[in-house]
Amino acid sequence: MNLQKTGLGLLAAAFCLIIMINPAIFAQSENDKVAALEADGDYFRQTLGGGPEDYNLEFNLPNPFTTNTTIRFAIPAKNNLAVKVYNNNWEVVRTLVNGEVDKGFYKVDWDGKNDQGQQVAHGIYYYRLKADAYDQVGKMYFLD
Question: How far apart are CA 49 and CA 83, in angstroms?
Answer without folding.
Answer: 26
